[in-house]
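BUG: 3D viewer hangs when loading the predicted structure for this chain

Environment: internal workstation, default settings.
Expected: structure renders.
Actual: progress bar stalls at 90%.

Input used:
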Amino acid sequence: MPTPEWTVEFPAAITVCDAGGTIVSLNEAAARVFAREGGASLVGRNALDCHPEPARSKLADLLRTGRINAYTIEKQGRRKLIYQAPWLEGGALRGFVELSLELPEDLPHFVRR
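Structure tokens produced before the viewer hung:
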């Protein structure tokens, strides 16, 4: 699966896996995030093999159920939002997409009515 043009230089990491967990697309930001693990050469590898437990089981569950998994992490002083959502085509589960967005320290929060 070629990486859609608009995502190549998008300023957040985008990783796409097929229904079996095989990584089919990484944008440039994702390749940088996963550089120590192989970067762009991860395309074609199974994402399940890249995760230790319990993350591996969580990922397998997402592939099986098509649920959304969203959380924040802090790593090396940087906060990120991780958003994993199903990749659907015609209502059929084709895999999942993971977005990893770096969050600014002063991220505003608004409550709108």
